[in-house]
Amino acid sequence: MEDDWSQAEPFRIKVVEPIRRISRAEREQKLREAGYNTFLLRSEDVYIDLLTDSGTAAMSDWQWAGIMQGDEAYAGSRSFYHLQEAVADLFGFSLVIPTHQGRAAENILFTVMVKPGQFVINNMHFDTTKAHVQHKNGIAVDLPVPEALVPTDQSPFKGNMDLDRLDEFIRTHGRDRIAMIMATVTNNSAGGQPVSLANLRGIRKIADRYGLPFFIDACRVAENAYFIKKREPGYQDKSIRQIIREMMDTADGITMSGKKDALMNIGGFLALRDGELYRQATVWAVLFEGFPTYGGLAGRDLEAMARGLYEAADEGYLAYRVGQVAYLGQRLKEAGVPIIEPPGGHGVYIDARRFLPHIPRDQFPAWALTGELYLEAGIRTVEVGTVLAGRDPATGENVYPELDMVRLAIPRRVYTDRHMDVVADAAARVLARREEVRGVRFTYEPPLLRHFTARFEPV
Ligand code: PM9
Questions:
Q1: CATH 3.90.1150.10 fits 24-53+315-458, yes or no
Q2: 217 pocket-lining for ligand 1 (C-beta < 6 Å)
Q3: Ligand 1 test: best mutation among 38, 49, 53, 54, most atoms within 8 Å of CB?
Q4: What are the two backbone dihedrals, phi and then psi, of residue 455, each rounded to the nearest 5 degrees?
Q5: Which of 58, 230, 238, 416 has the fewest CB atoms inside 10 Å of its own CB, making it the most exposed?
């Protein structure tokens, strides 16, 4: 029953936020005004907002009650200790530094651990993680398994790191050139695909062989644990909380964006085992984020985050959550929309080169598709493709990634499956008239992180 994605949402809706769909003519105008960039649309002009699953969750009544009970002391607030207890209880780390969001935990960790010229090896870095490595003059290396880049490959753990390449990379470059190994669970840049416990244990073994630290980017840890329970032999009868703990036991610490699997609208933390590392990290935490018991957050945020961590580790919630993503994936597949298979934990990714084969890569098919989905039904999505990949600094040429994708990221506990039907039907209608869809070209291209503020026009 828990497995069945047709089961209804495991909550009643107590508060609603009205949304509206503006007319097609208005959407055309808004998209033109936004330079054909969905980041530059106002959310009130969006009907179904699948831009990100980050910071967009609906909090529960228990979390809202925690907001009222937050202890707003500058130092040593009760709510900090509640967060610390939750992290110790669920993840097994006794040392916690709250941060205003996930990338701030990355900033502190890499400031302490990455020396100029050192590598950080990840299954696949998320953009902010990579940027923070580079900001410390480190070099970010991705070592995904090959199947991660094959859209129709049905392997259960396409988020895994390639362990052979990991070992070879360390041997080639020498352990002193490696600052740390990291695993991102689930692997967002590869379509929200999970990492197996066998893979995490394999990374730990290699880390131990060379005496290297191993950290987990844990922002979607609960969704990843659900996939382990469903797909990895030997875990069917373990609870989500047991699996989360086994995952965490492989690592020296984690960075966490509370905006994902802590069901928060803001917040994050760094969690560690080692007292000396913690002491070094707190120095930078004070400088970047604030006193180490509040870390850029209000007591009420700490309280709600502690509660959100427990709620996200609930198996019934996860069955609904991952089930809703699977439901959208299934509906899209039935309509003939090419997607990255199997669907990941937090969203469905459309394979835009197969969707729009007539649009050349330098006219950004995935970007063009984000505009069409907005025009068709007011749906906001995001490109994870050539525009995001940017240019090669040496040649100035576009970097063409293996996959040009459109991400449909589903906010947690926000939309019903009826909304998912609207999304699937709209994508099917665009597919039916895909020959009409044109590519786009830049009218303004910023030099860095171009996807956020670039402007385009149809070719
Ligand atoms: N991820 C996302 O939409 C939000 C920011 S970009 C629009 O997927 C991983 C795996 C992430 C992530 C954010 C962060 C940073 C770290 N790791 O956004 O700083 O997916 O809380 O987390 C976004 P913060």
A1: yes
A2: yes
A3: 54
A4: -125, 150
A5: 416
Ligand 1 centre to CA of 109 (Å) is 16
Distance 395 CA to ligand 1 centre (A): 29
Distances (CA, A) of 217 to 132, 181, 239, 450: 13, 11, 21, 24
Confidence of residue 392 (pLDDT cuts 50, 70, 90): confident
Per DSSP, what are the bridge partners of residue 382? Answer: 407
For ligand 1, atom 3: residue with the closest CA: 52
Q: What interhelical angle do 61-69 and 299-312 show, nearest 10?
A: 150
Residue 239 has pLDDT above 60, yes or no: yes
What is the average per-residue pLDDT within 377-383? 98
Mean pLDDT of the region 22-50: 98
Residue spans in the chain of domains classed CATH 3.90.1150.10: 24-53+315-458
The overall average pLDDT reported for the chain is 96
Going by pLDDT thresholds of 50, 70 and 90, the confidence category of residue 151 is very high
Check if the beta carbon of residue 93 is closer than 8 Å to that of residue 248.
yes
Give distance in angstroms: CA of 321 to centre of ligand 1: 18
Nearest CA to ligand 1 atom 7: 52
The CATH class for the domain spanning 62-312 reads alpha beta
In a mutational test of the pocket of ligand 1, which residue from 49, 259, 388 has the highest number of ligand atoms less than 8 Å from its CB? 259
3-state helix, strand, coil in the chain (%, to 5): 45, 15, 40
Confidence of residue 2 (pLDDT cuts 50, 70, 90): low
Q: Give CA separation, 322 vs 160, 227, 395, in Å.
A: 19, 9, 41
Per-residue model confidence (pLDDT) at position 38: 98
Ligand 1 pocket member 282 (CB < 6 A): no
Residues of the chain with CATH 3.40.640.10: 62-312
Ligand 1 and 122: CB distance under 6 A: no
57 alpha carbon – ligand 1 mean position (Å) = 14
